[in-house]
User: What shape does this take?
Amino acid sequence: MPRTRFALLSAVALLLSLSAATAFAAGAHAPATTKAAVAPPIPGVGYDPQVRGLSVSIYQLDTLTSPLQRYSAVFSADPGAVGAHPDPYYLSVSDPLVRAAYELRWGPNTAGTRFKRWIGPGNEARSVLRDALIWFSINRPGDLGGVTAGRNGEPTEVEITDVQALNDAAIWVGYLQGAVVGFSPDRRETINDPNRPSGDGQEPHFFWKITWYYHNTYEAQPPFSPPLPPGVH
Assistant: This one.
């Protein structure tokens, strides 16, 4: 082999070995590009009525004068975790598995087409119960009863319905008195009502059945007195 060709091949081999060594060193010191998998947050706020001492679902069927039905709740049944499309934020009772879990948890005929009223607040107040559970998760998480760590902070349909069906009044009363204007003497609701006495007052709230505090700014005008004729004193 001619000396010139041998020298050229030797130089190429040296460059390749240096490139490989450099690449190895760079790879050894390069930061890891893969990250450890992070578990998604658990739906809900961690409300557990069983730990809070509640276990009986109470409701009426058909009419508001029907006798109350009492049913021992089966907390292992979770209608938000079963069915063709499990969804903790939408309970599709048209799905047989969801309906079965719903009635297993809260009682027979609670998921059908028959009229139903929970012993707790009705569906018109579900948004307030949702806000109450969120408020507890932020301000009094230890009172929710369950595991609150790792939660997404948005109450599930099951958690809200548990408050209704098991009549957990301490949840909505605690929230109203702790956060909502009108339910504490320190946070009176300002009104202007001619049918109530002026100034500070209180009375039972028509819906929540707890004390409602207000400050009435209405002031009755003094009785009208026509002016006296001249010369009459």
Strands lie at 56-61, 69-72, 116-118, 189-191, 199-204, 211-216. Residues 23 and 62 are 77 Å apart (CA to CA). Residues 181-221 form one domain. Confidence is low (pLDDT under 50) at residues 1-30.
